[in-house]
Amino acid sequence: MERETSLDFKELQQQDLESLWHHLTQHSVFKDQAPPIMVEGKGCILKDHTGREYLDAVSGGVWCVNVGYGRDSIAEAVYEQLKKMPYYAPALGNIPTIKLADKLTSLLPRLHKVFFSNSGSEANEKAFKMCRQYFRLKYNNKDKYKIIYRNRDYHGTTIAALSATGQDERRALFGPLVPGFVEIPHALCYRCHFGKAYPGCNLECAYALEETIKREDPDAVAAYIVEPITAGGGIIVPVDEYFKIVQEICKKYEVLIIMDEVVNGFARTGTWFGHEHFEVNPDIVTMAKGMASSYMGISATMAKQEIFDQFLNDPSDKIAYFRDISTYGGCAGGSVAALENIKIIEEENLCERSRIMGEYFIGALKELENLPMVGEARGKGLFAGIELVEDKNTKVPVSEGYVNKIVAGAKEKGVLIGKMNRSVPNLNNVLGFAPMLIVTKEEIDKIVGAVKSALENNPI
User: Which residues are 41's β-sheet partners?
Assistant: First the structure.
């Protein structure tokens, strides 16, 4: 039986090499080693085709399996719904989408309308379109259309979402990008764009938004899209005052705030949504990933009532409504998965657990700052990063090759950790962590121990 299983996996690996185009992968690496195949997960543990088990410290590789693997109740709820009715076009509601919309508005009561789609990229695309059409309807086709975004933030892979992404290597070779997207500096104090040190600064990173709005013309700027805590650009937590200043600026110039909660949402940072750590009231919130813990594909774009109301017009006007559709926004199974996922977060108090375990986790990572190559450990809740440097004084980043050694070293210890995947040129030096919300202290100790061992075994 074992031999037959082995032969089956060899055949699968060959089929993989012949047919599958992996995401974010240089396939030439498979010339020397066939890609592994993950076959089973339970709790925080993954098993590959050889039977080896790993502690998954990145929740499915891209920070999305928030409630852990093997949740029977989600699978069973989806199964029952698919037998009853899998889908109907989202121009009409179905019971699961109605119930999920109601649930989401209870979690974010300042936002009253929910538009479902299939992925975080798509959710952000909808947000851009809503903003642009909103102002054209409100001001009789006034061209208030520009979207400001932040360096190092990531908002998706579609061309417009990529145009709003402050990571050059993700954008390279895909141009020309969409006009009307404008970048401002990041909010990483460790590498301040302005050469300042908090708190002895004037929050230039926040006020850069106002300078950019004025330069681009306030009558032309529609929205500012931002991650509450930057994810793929290096796990960047802004200082507490940042979003209060941003809120005041956006209100002054009638610029809508789009909060990209695709990664931060659903208890990842110790609150239901990442922006709840800060003094900010977004006009639109986008979400995906942890929304259904990726048991099914689903995303949402939530908007305030006043935005929705601008689309209420005479039915004879054929373009004065939100003329947009996402086919898979009508999948009942995705909504059921999200509802059950949210129920698990509530019943198991995973927001509070994420906060408490996150404090323990980030505290343990901070102790690694005693090592010569650890420049800074940072994060919020169960969402953290470690920035690695060749020298703590100069902050010269370590090479990507060095980061790969650390990731491989942790894997040898049975722990899967992440890296920033070349998202920021010359700053590919941040290790990323997003353990499941159910992670135990013992598992956190194993994660930190594996990273410490890899760092100590690979001195600078």
Answer: 46
Asked if residue 21 has pLDDT above 90, the reply is: yes
Give the tens place of pLDDT for each residue, 301-310: 999 999 999 9
Asked if 59 and 438 touch (Cβ cutoff 8 Å), the reply is no
Task: Considering only CA atoms, give the Rg of the chain.
Answer: 22
> What span, in angstroms and rounded, lies between the C-alpha atoms of 181 and 161?
10
Answer with the one of 347, 371, 406 that is the final residue of a domain: 347
pLDDT value at position 10?
A: 87
> For 201-273, where are the alpha helices, taking DSSP H only?
204-216, 242-252
For residue 229, tell me if it sits in a domain.
Answer: yes
Which 3 state secondary structure label does DSSP give 176?
A: coil
| pLDDT beyond 60 at 7 | no
Residues 6+ apart with CB under 8 A from 324: 115, 126, 129
Same domain, 337 and 401: no
Domain with residue 417: its CATH number is: 3.90.1150.10
* Range 57-82 average pLDDT: 97
CA distance 346 to 67: 11
Domain assignment present for 7: no
Query: Do residue 262 and residue 379 come from a single domain?
Result: no
pLDDT in tens, 155-210: 999 999 999 999 998 999 999 999 999 999 999 999 999 999 999 999 999 999 99
Prediction pTM value:
0.96
pLDDT at 2 over 50: no
Query: By C-alpha distance, which of 406, 349, 403, 360 is closest to 384?
Result: 360
User: What pLDDT is stored for residue 422 in this prediction?
Assistant: 56
CB distance 324 to 122 below 8 Å: no
| Count of structural domains within the chain | 2
pLDDT at residue 35 greater than cutoff 50: yes
- Residue 135 CB: number of other CB atoms within 10 A? 23
What's the whole-number mean pLDDT along residues 56-84? Answer: 97
Domain boundary among 303, 330, 347: 347
Same domain for 382 and 338?
no
| CA gap 108, 228 in Å, rounded | 15
- E strand or H helix at 340: helix 332-347
CATH number of the domain that 115 lies in? 3.40.640.10
295 and 71 in contact (C-beta within 8 Å)?
yes
